[in-house]
Design a protein that fits this description.
- The chain is mainly alpha-helical.
- 72% of the residues lie in helices and 3% in strands.
- Helix 2 packs across helix 7 and helix 7 packs across helix 9.
- The protein starts with 8 loop residues before the first strand and ends with a helix.
């Protein structure tokens, strides 16, 4: 039986781009950038949405992430995870967007009576619960629960030690469980009255 070589290399069960594609990307090849965008845009978009809780803003951050990645492509260290490098850029870009949003929201809040959840595509209780978390906690929650990332990979993305992330995640889980129970109890009391 003849075996064919895949154009992708496998490490730890994760399909990685060829070294040639990475080399071409670092040297400014736009076709290599397109291949990277095709490969990572969906997962990065979900990641940005989880941090920002706003689809349109997440699309803007995603576009800005790829622009920054292309501009800083010479800083990419061969042999490191391109995935983690892109997620790190997306994370810092999303944090900047949150800071800009807070400033805009303070100015906007005085003139409008619409809640931010009404502008987004998630329910009011979920928006309230997620917005009570810090950006770092939302990124950690998304990475562990939805993306099922290891603590090792998250430590590269979030620039924190694995043990710190484990402890933060455990505290976050218990805090969310406590908050959910509290909200459920409060909702039942409201319904009975």
């Amino acid at each position: 039986m003849k075996r064919y070589r895949s154009k992708y290399k496998f490490e730890g069960g994760v399909k990685l781009l060829e070294q040639e594609t990475l080399h071409a990307f670092v040297n400014g090849d736009e076709r290599a950038l397109e291949a990277i965008i095709d490969r990572y845009s969906k997962s990065l978009l979900r990641y940005c949405i989880s941090i920002l809780c706003d689809v349109e803003e997440a699309k803007d951050v995603l576009q800005e992430t790829f622009i920054k990645a292309y501009e800083k492509r010479r800083h990419y260290q061969p042999g490191t995870s391109l995935n983690a490098w892109l997620y790190r850029i997306a994370y810092t870009t999303a944090i900047s967007a949150v800071r800009r949003r807070r400033l805009r929201f303070r100015l906007w809040k005085a003139s409008k009576d619409i809640s931010p959840a009404q502008e987004n595509y998630i329910s009011e209780p979920l928006y309230s619960l997620l917005s009570s978390l810090s950006v770092a906690d939302r990124a950690l929650l998304y990475g562990r629960v939805l993306d099922e990332r290891s603590y090792q990979e998250l430590s590269q993305i979030l620039n924190a030690s694995e043990s710190t992330l484990r402890k933060r995640f455990e505290r976050l889980r218990s805090r969310l469980a406590k908050e959910a129970r509290h909200r459920e109890t409060y909702a039942k009391e409201e319904w009975v009255q």
